[in-house]
């Protein structure tokens, strides 16, 4: 494998210029490479930073299938943990949602985003296409022409990459979106009056599945990264400073919010990382302007309650790889022309699910006792109706991708 430090500088031209080496950009590059379509990935951060950035951890079956089909499934199948259900905890009771019978056999996989990113980076550095770390895109120029240009800074110098297409996989704070004139795009947005305090702890998870806890003290989520590392979240007010949450306070609050009349012991251990994650729902439409396309968090974000962000990024780029492969094989832009609409149907479905999970489980600071009773009625409905449980299970395990996991040419 070629070490990152000796990665060659990007060529001056390419077919698909990809800004951002997160899950969306890396997976797209992998799929294009397997279809014989040349591309370059520009990533502003260094390799270590990108590989250590703590974020999502739940892979839908469609995401895992895409990773497997493009050759990135070996470690995922060895180390990923299949989960067939989740637990809802409310009103001091626990209810398990059993996915397979509700979804025709679907489940999810616990495999951290950090590991997905490590696997894709290792493959790309070994096999190509070019992946340039420390390359910060400054602007996309000539977006309305057939040869858009990415201007970027690398090792103190400015460079230009001329492309047939530019794909912005540069996340919520990226710059590619700015290449689309304000009059040509519309942003739909909703904020939430709370954030998540997320911690990593060196302690085995207290439950073998994720526990989503509704409590009048606020929401809590008990998740995991591996059999020995717990990932835990507490709803906190916006603007919370993690320094105001010493470890004991975090464990006490997790305990209080997960109280149940059934058996439950929360295992405590050393907390190794703490961060605060704001909650937002944002969609930019359309996801394409001429030859500039936006995928993943660059186009849309969801509150993490439904575990959809990483999975939406994967479905966007899987669909996009199909469209580029179709263009290469047939000369037709038909799939590319319909790509934004195809993705947005799935995106809005995931936005609705994430919103519904979030507002059902969290306590709004202005919430009345009536609002709380409505939340509990909804949770009770999920616990007692097969139809309501199936609706949750189908959305959680992920609606099927529009097409098969990867283009045939990329297998
Ligand atoms: C702080 C945080 C915590 C999260 N936690 C969870 C969670 O717990 N559970 C969950 O389900 N989801 C979570 N998510 C959502 C999920 O991680 C994202 O949906 C997913 O990372 C989207 O992948 P992406 O490739 O589209 O964007 P990103 O992962 O954001 O990748 C974008 C990449 O572009 C690079 N970049 C940005 N600007 C430039 C530039 N100008 N030039 C070159 N490169 C650039 C960035 O360095 C980054 O590597 C979290 C997201 C964030 C931001």
Automatic annotation (TrEMBL):
The EC number of this protein is: 1.14.13.2
Residue ranges of the FAD-binding domain? 14-354
Q: Which GO terms describe its molecular function?
A: 4-hydroxybenzoate 3-monooxygenase activity
Q: Write down the InterPro entries for this protein, in alphabetical order.
A: FAD-bd, FAD/NAD-bd_sf, RIFMO-like
| UniProt keyword annotations, A-Z | FAD, Flavoprotein, Oxidoreductase
Query: Transmembrane region positions?
Result: none
Instruction: Provide the top EC class.
Output: oxidoreductase
Q: Tell me the PANTHER family matching this sequence.
A: P-HYDROXYBENZOATE HYDROXYLASE, TRK SYSTEM POTASSIUM UPTAKE PROTEIN
* Name of the molecule in the record: p-hydroxybenzoate hydroxylase
Q: What is the lineage of its organism?
A: Bacteria, Bacillati, Actinomycetota, Actinomycetes, Kitasatosporales
């Amino acid at each position: 494998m070629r070490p990152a430090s000796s990665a060659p500088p990007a060529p001056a031209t390419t077919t698909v210029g990809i800004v951002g080496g997160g899950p969306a950009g890396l997976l797209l590059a992998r799929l294009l490479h397997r279809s014989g379509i040349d591309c370059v990935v520009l990533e502003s951060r260094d390799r270590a930073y990108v590989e250590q950035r703590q974020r999502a951890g739940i892979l839908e079956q469609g995401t895992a299938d895409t990773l497997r089909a493009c050759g990135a499934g070996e470690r995922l199948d060895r180390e990923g943990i299949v989960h067939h259900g989740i637990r809802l905890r409310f009103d001091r009771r626990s209810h398990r949602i059993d996915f397979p019978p509700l979804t025709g056999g679907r489940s999810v996989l616990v495999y951290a985003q950090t590991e997905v990113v490590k696997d894709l980076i290792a493959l790309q550095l070994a096999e190509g296409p070019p992946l340039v770390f420390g390359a910060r895109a400054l602007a996309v120029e000539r977006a309305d022409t057939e040869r858009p240009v990415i201007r970027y800074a690398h090792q103190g110098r400015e460079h230009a990459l001329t492309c047939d297409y530019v794909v912005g996989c540069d996340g919520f704070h990226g710059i590619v979106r700015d290449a689309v004139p304000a009059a040509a795009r519309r942003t739909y947005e909703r904020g939430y009056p709370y954030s998540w305090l997320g911690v990593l702890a060196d302690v085995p998870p207290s439950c073998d599945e994720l526990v989503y806890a509704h409590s009048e003290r606020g929401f809590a989520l008990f998740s995991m990264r591996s059999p020995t590392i717990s990932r835990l979240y507490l709803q906190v007010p916006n603007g919370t400073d993690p320094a105001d949450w010493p470890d004991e306070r975090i464990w006490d609050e997790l305990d209080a919010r997960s109280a149940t009349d059934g058996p439950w012991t929360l295992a405590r251990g050393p907390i190794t990382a703490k961060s605060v994650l704001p909650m937002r729902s944002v969609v930019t439409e359309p996801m394409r302007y001429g030859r500039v396309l936006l995928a993943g968090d660059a186009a849309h974000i969801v509150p993490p309650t439904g575990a959809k962000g990483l999975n939406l990024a994967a479905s966007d780029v899987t669909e996009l790889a199909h469209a580029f492969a179709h263009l290469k094989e047939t000369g037709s832009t038909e799939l590319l022309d319909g790509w934004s609409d195809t993705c947005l149907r799935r995106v809005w479905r995931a936005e609705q699910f994430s919103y519904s999970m979030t507002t059902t489980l969290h306590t709004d600071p202005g919430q009345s006792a009536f609002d709380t009773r409505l939340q509990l009625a909804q949770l009770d409905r999920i616990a007692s109706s097969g139809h309501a449980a199936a609706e949750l299970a189908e959305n959680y395990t992920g609606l099927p991708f529009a097409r098969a996991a990867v283009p045939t040419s990329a297998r």
